[in-house]
Amino acid sequence: AAGVIQSPRHLIKEKRETATLKCYPIPRHDTVYWYQQGPGQDPQFLISFYEKMQSDKGSIPDRFSAQQFSDYHSELNMSSLELGDSALYFCASSSRSWGVSYEQYFGPGTRLTVT
Amino acid sequence: AQKVTQAQTEISVVEKEDVTLDCVYETRDTTYYLFWYKQPPSGELVFLIRRNSFDEQNEISGRYSWNFQKSTSSFNFTITASQVVDSAVYFCALSEARETSGSRLTFGEGTQLTVNP
Question: Residue A99 — very low, low, confident or very high, per pLDDT cuts 50/70/90?
Fold first, then answer.
């Protein structure tokens, strides 16, 4: 079965640089979520999109932005990177029916290292 | 605000032992969903189970079983006859039902389970 695809899997950037993470949801899933997981931490919700519109926003820094495109893939753009942005970034997708989102399936994650 | 607490930070067992991972949650909603995810050393998050707040039936899937008790706001996870491959971090998570927004997951801190041969 098709899974969530994330690219790149690993990314090394320097402070103040910019990074773009990509996410391709499971086919026919209409909702995409982004989470950030710091070392030894639980995943923290950043932002979500439903049918290409932002549907919810969590603890996402102003330096980060995201969007969902017409083909449902999503990109997380991160600017002015800081050392503290080093983390595993997960994308998850789910389908929704009658206002209820079902289980979220996670991609393998992108490990971002900021030096 | 919603909150999930996994009081057990680390658990170590010997293969074939049974082990229970505890999860306690807080929410003001009457409709909500509970989940368990597994994160093996390779890092991916693997979905294990989803439960809605109206269904308190316990569930068994092979060596895995889940006990949902609304009265104590708990959703515990038991692995029977544990195996080395069960070694991972296990996260309990909660989402509230929202008509117009996405159902973000709030995770507990996770429990590191180590199964020794």
Answer: low
What is the number of other CB atoms lying within 10 angstroms of the CB of residue A3?
14
A101 touches chain B (CB under 8 A): yes
Tens of pLDDT, residue by residue over A102-113, are: 788 999 999 999
A101 to B95: CB separation less than 8 angstroms, yes or no: yes
Per DSSP, A106 falls in state E
Considering only alpha carbons, which residue of chain B is nearest residue A53? Answer: B101
| Per-position DSSP letters for A36-77, written without gaps between them | EE-TTS--EEEEEEETTEEEEE-S--TTEEEEE-TTS-EEEE
In chain B (117 residues long), the average pLDDT of successive 10-residue segments reads: 94 97 94 93 92 86 94 96 97 81 86 97
In the block, tokens 């979220």 appear at A104
CB-nearest to A56 from B50, B104, B110 is B104
Torsion of CA B80, A105, B96, A61, to 10 degrees: 120
φ/ψ of B81, rounded to 5, equals 50, 60
* B contacts of A94 (beta carbons < 8 Å): 103
Q: Give the pLDDT confidence score for residue A59 in this predicted structure.
A: 87
pLDDT tens for each residue of A4-28:
999 999 999 999 999 999 999 999 8
Burial of residue A105 (number of CB atoms within 10 Å: 0-12, 13-18, 19+)? buried
